[in-house]
């Protein structure tokens, strides 16, 4: 006869050393001994008798015990051992408890460190430690939802650091995608935050785009008497018009002076795709001179303090300030605008070649992105014409 709530509540141990069994039906029974009341389910699987613990009364009342029994019977009907399923669930909970956001993030940082510059690695670590870990670092990553991440990001947004908030959101997304690959979560929850943060106002980097003023700037650059690394970076900035971060993080392993090419891996590029920079004769000459100074190390432009890191992000801008060019007049990033404007408006180069060389997304008629080698011979010719033009306005 099935048990009742009243019976389960009032039944007491009879004193039997082996304990008392009170059957409810369908293999569920209440086991009572001197220590307490325990729900059990007996079943056979593969010819063996097994016993499944379903909890302790009163924490698990009669109705809950019956639901647990029904769940176990459903597993058995599917050929699954409910005892093994229980062990697996317990192990999964333990893994989830150990796999906090901070633990997963630090593992991701360590495993992907080789894909980014040391300075970027340090910056990413600091961003997470200061802005994310205090809010969600201790939470199991499998239990974190979009609103948890958003709450952390909104604290950054409230400080007015809108660009940082967006970049940290991207970092969190990379951590979640790493967790997806490791089977720790089902999806990247930051995908639900599109449009949740205030837009970052577009910044316009100051740039000299008029040929006469560009010529005066180039004369100042060639007269610069600062540190040789900074001097070389200044001279190469207008010739290559790469992003400042890409230039200062350049490695000798990426530069082929014989082939006159600098091949930047996609891990360093804003668009995430490999990029080829053809080197004009003038650029190769500067790099050969620099190779005598830094070619024994990893970075083309190493830090003055240590060869383990690349040049500081402020080096070229500081040199420009020292030459008398304020941030309202010219910036390291401004060499890109200089090249784009003059190549188009003065030299009449093809806009698509310019955009390719700026490493912007350029698509064909079918909407497909061109690969890194697209129009390489034409870009090589353009880069040499550009270098020759710069010489002509400097002299």
UniProtKB/TrEMBL annotation:
SUPFAM superfamilies, A to Z: DNA breaking-rejoining enzymes (SSF56349)
CDD domains named in the record: INT_P4_C
Stretches assigned to the Tyr recombinase domain: 203-391
Domain Core-binding (CB): 99-180
GO biological process: DNA integration; DNA recombination
Entry keyword set: DNA integration, DNA recombination, DNA-binding
Pfam families reported in the protein's UniProt record: Arm-DNA-bind_3, Phage_int_M, Phage_integrase
GO molecular function, one term: DNA binding
Similarity remark: Belongs to the 'phage' integrase family.
Name the UniProt record assigns to this protein: DUF4102 domain-containing protein
Source species of the chain: Pseudoduganella dura
